Amino acid sequence: MGTGRVVLVTGVSRDLGRRFARALVADPAVGKVIGVDVTPPRGDIGDVSFVRADIRNPVIAKIIAKEDVDTVVHMSVIATPGTAGGRNTMKELNVIGTMQLLAACQKAPSLQHLVVKSTTTVYGASSRDPAMFTEDMEPRRAPRAGYAKDVAEIEGYVRGLARRRPDVRVTTIRAANVIGPHVTSPITSYFRLPVIPIVLGHDPRLQFLHEQDLMDVLQHAVVSDIPGTFNVAGDGILMLSQAIRRLQRPSVPMPAFAVGTLGSALRSARVADFSPEQIGFLTYGRGVDTTRMREILDFHPKFSSAEAFADFGSLLPPTGGHSEKVLAGLARALPPPPPAEQPAGAEHG
Amino acid sequence: MGDAEIIPIGTRGRPGRGTGKQPSTAARDLAPTRKPPAKPAVRPTSRPTPAGRKPTVKKAPVAAPASAPGPPAVEHPVAARPAATTRDRGPMAGIPAGDWLAAFQHASLEIFGDQAELQLARFLAFLRRRVTGDYVVDEYGFDQEITQRFFMAALRPIAEKWFRIEVRGAENIPTEGGALVVSNHSGTIPVDGLMTMVSIHDHTGRFLRPLGADLVFSLPIVSTLARKGGATLACNEDAERMLSGGELVGVWPEGFKGIGKPYAERYKLQRFGRGGFVAAALRTGVPIIPLSVVGAEEIYPLVGNVPALARLLGIPYIPITPLFPLLGPLGLVPLPSKWLLEFGEPIRTDEYEAGAADDPMLVFNVTDQVRETIQQSLYSLLMQRTSVFG
Do B101 and A323 touch (CB under 8 A)? Predict the structure, then answer.
């Protein structure tokens, strides 16, 4: 202690938060990392000191004051009610928790930096969307419910704090869909389904951010002193159909309402944490512009969208891909040099 | 059924059907006795076309008899087996996969010549890339490979053979850098957009990136095809992004007012929206290329509309053409009018000062200039045209 920053990380009970906190301890610019959450983390937290506290509770202000925290990383924004125990709890954790945390931050004179992990979900998804959202664009339709609304409210509170405490540097990271072999999120559980339902006749554009890149960008935001709001996503775009083909999984096109119903059914059966709010995203997709991330934040993700997705898919066994096998067999039967006469053309037979 | 049974036919007397002047020994032997009725079904597939290309075609038939010289003596008594039934004679039954493959190879050899193997392998590689998702789309969802190899290939015959499109002034399209093609809109269904895309690609090698109404992106299937074909939403953000990215962007400012206008008002330009396209061009400093399309008005002459049903379905209009609901799906075939596409002189926008895009008066003036140019060249093209279907 004494040297380096004192960082408070919320939401360390979840895998990403815990691993981020551990990675942050190793950073030379950081002296101490305090992890806060309602439930203790499942895995090893290394040198992170864990404090079991609820951010919905004014206790958090005491921790910030007592530990002389100068940096707060707010990662405790959850996307699905599955882990929290219901939509009401989720909303309370997200919105009320952020309000309490920011209130505590506003009161703490020691605080200098605030990093908030937000998401590109705030831009919504509709047929009227521009191809690429930049940071200063608003969603075409204000979100009325769910995660997107929570995040919009949280960002509102964060902007409020930035107004009231101009001395605090506030960085908001709007991360695209985080994906990786260890990530459990609505989108990864969607792709883990053995047969993937898709919305009939729509092929959304998707962007992904690798879990490692998420940690790196948050660490980069903590260490470098750059205020502002930044979209963070891997390079390039994958279409949903393309992504499913790369996973070699079969897909079933069905009307949007049926996908929603199936999603709720799967969630109540605890098969997949697939929320009906994603229907918009799976219908229209979303793209975000990352020019500011490169030029102002000076962060360059290691994984492109396609590479991040490939890394996620590398551990998933393919459940389809029969046509690929047939074509591969055919390609072997027809090499360019001499006309092959083996009766291997199974498709023609 | 084994391949070897076929062999006896050619093993007595002169092999093969040498000259083609008289039937071979084998054929003469076959005629009166009618021994194996099921066999001829197999024969022709392995010998697709006897005429021409002797060296290549001969290869397979010769190879087949040579590979099994022994069996004839043993196999000949096959005549004793029961006569073939209709079930045996099914067209697909009993033709081994190898024969199919050989037949396809021969057919492709006949059609494509020596490059057949290469082309087949290339096509297979393309199919595999599609099936494994190993292709790249740009940030708007534009899939160049499928557009070039599939959409364009499918639309080209329509453009060339059905509408016999004649393109004038293609040299006015810059070969590189951003440019905005502004066109009149007509034809009930935006076929003119598709035909413009094909014509521009065939004349300049560039892809036109159309800006579409939000209805396009909310419709299932249409939205997928539009994104894959390179379209994006007609909004200022996307237009400026594409133009500053150096794309050739196409815009139809009349929108639904243009394609949905009754036949009586053909070739009368409607209002050009709010001039958003001019503002986008002014901000990015790219030239505006006016395009006049003649012929698209006549493909589906719009004589009526069902506004109530259109409102119910949430679409701008329900077209009634002389053929459409009357002939059912057949009414969807467009009339084969002759099309003329004339690209006008580019209108430069890079000479205005920086804040020009925010000056509404200037934007309206440039919009009017573009509109007048298109209207005038429409009139002159109509004067030159001898008949609608000519």
Answer: no
